[in-house]
Each structure stands twice: as structure tokens, then as C-alpha cells.
Amino acid sequence: MGIDIGTIKLILSHAAAIHGLEIRVEPVDLARLALKRLGLIGKGIERDRRPTQDELARLIAHFDGNPRQLIPVGSIIRFAVATAMRQDEICRAQ
What we know:
Layout lengths: L1 H18 L6 H12 L15 H12 L8 H11 L3 H6 L2
Helix pairs in contact: 1-2, 3-4
């Protein structure tokens, strides 16, 4: 949710700067502060667990076994594991 708040602020700032709209971004900062105090946003919990080979195999089998699945998710999982690339890096690859 913290990323979403940042995206909203970026869009509003862009609208103000590029399109000359009179938009205040201070309410977004206040919303971020309130959400942080309520414990709804904050730093993520650091993860150090990796999926087992069995878990990966089950995920790949699930997606590869679905005839309605048009996106090659199994291949994407294999690629992600082999390259250690993140989802956004894989999706931006050309």
C-alpha cells in the first residue's frame, strides 16, 4: 500500500507540473503518515526463505497443466529462478 500512496503522489505532482493544475500533494503526505501510525503501511518484513524444488515443480506443473493459461507462467518461473530477476525486470525485458 505504501507504493500505491507514492504512485498517487507522483501522479498528482505530474498533473500539477505538466498540466498546470492546482493540486496540493500535502494531503497525500498526511494520509501516508496516518496509515503508518495505524500500522497499515511500513517497511516490509525481510524474507530469507526460498521455495523448495518440490514447491517450484508443483507451481510449474499447475500452470503448465492448465489449458486455459495463455501466459507461459511455467517458463517465466524457470527464467526467474535461473536469472534471479525480479518480476518487473522480467516484464520489462525486450
